[in-house]
Design a protein that fits this description.
The complex is a heterodimer of chains A (111) and B (182).
Chain A: H1 3-9, H2 14-22, H3 29-39, H4 48-60, E1 64-70, E2 73-78, H5 80-100, H6 103-110
Antiparallel strand pairs in A: 1-2
Helix pairs in contact in A: 2-3
Chain B: E1 2-6, H1 14-26, E2 29-35, E3 39-44, E4 50-56, H2 63-71, E5 75-80, E6 83-89, H3 105-139, H4 145-180
Antiparallel strand pairs in B: 1-3, 2-3, 4-6, 5-6
Helix pairs in contact in B: 3-4
Classes of the chains: A mainly alpha (111), B alpha+beta (182).
Chain lengths: 111, 182
């Protein structure tokens, strides 16, 4: 993964993360938005124009690519570089999660 | 029933325009279209809380942009001088983002920059190329006689209006943009 891309995208916004997560399977903007809404119990919603802008930017940066078109809707899917960014971000969040639960301290105490 | 309302909103007043249109719809008047520069055509309707959004420069956007907005429940019903008019019933929105076309600050700031570049800049250029030189000529007393006076009066008004508009719009657009940019 390019350093530049990594610097821009890791860490990323919550909506950015969900967009990449959803694009492990081919999907269009509105489909992503519905899926994210469902996954987060309606707490994370992404506006139409913001979704459009995010997808265009991610495509330009090579994180996702056009998979096809359905009516006038573009279907996108993760590229290899997108997968790398997603797993780097996942690793970061996992570490954050472990530390937020004090696992680092627990391990230290049991030594 | 139909009616046409004359109301002036400058290029920097799009947020006020959105609120005004929403109020009209609540009172039972839905916007059907615009006649440039400042005539709003309404049609009577059931009073409803409908969110209005103005998007600048959507005409330059590809088809899939309009498709995406329509997927998200935005009805595109009019265009006027580079602005596209969208609306969506407030009852279809739960979160704040669902009532916005753009929910990230970067896109919002970008929209304001676009308005400044393609709307404000030409007005400023026009001011320096035609309005200001004419005004200077007038001050030099080049326009004489009755028609000269008429012309001078007319130009003074244009000059004052132009200065006011440029200062007002620049200050306001910058203020809006600074809300979204640190």
């Amino acid at each position: 993964m390019e350093e530049r891309i990594k610097r821009i995208y890791v860490p990323m916004t919550e909506s950015g993360f969900y967009i990449l997560y959803c694009l492990q399977e081919p999907q269009h903007g509105y489909g992503i938005s519905r899926q994210v809404k469902e996954m987060t119990g309606g707490e994370v919603t992404i506006s139409a124009g913001t979704m459009y802008g995010a997808l265009s930017k991610m495509e330009k940066d090579g994180l996702i690519r056009l998979h096809g078109e359905e009516d006038k809707r573009k279907l996108y899917q993760l590229t290899e570089s997108g997968k790398e960014v997603l797993s780097a971000e996942t690793a970061r969040i996992e570490r954050l999660f472990r530390n937020s639960r004090g696992e680092y301290l627990n391990e230290k105490n049991s030594d | 029933m139909r009616r046409t309302v004359t109301k002036v909103f400058t290029i920097a007043d799009f947020e006020e325009e959105e609120i005004w249109l929403r109020e009209q719809h609540k009172k039972g008047w839905k916007l059907t279209g615009m006649t440039p520069p400042c005539f709003y055509r309404f049609e009577s309707c059931e009073p409803e809380d409908v969110i209005y959004r103005l998007d600048f420069g959507s005409d330059d956007r590809p088809n899939d942009y309009m498709q995406m907005l329509s997927d998200f429940g935005w009805e595109h019903f009019a265009d006027c001088l580079g602005w596209s008019y969208f609306r969506k019933p407030a009852s279809e929105t739960v979160t704040e983002e669902e009532g916005e076309i753009f929910s990230d600050d970067e896109s919002r700031a970008e929209q304001v920059t676009k308005v400044m570049r393609s709307r404000l800049l030409p007005v400023v250029l026009l001011f320096f190329c035609t309005v200001l030189p004419n005004f200077m000529r007038m001050l030099d007393g080049e326009y004489i006689g009755f028609w000269g006076k008429v012309y001078s009066g007319f130009f003074s008004i244009v000059f004052a209006l132009d200065v006011f508009l440029i200062v007002y719009c620049t200050a306001k657009l910058k203020k809006i943009r600074s809300r979204y940019k640190d």
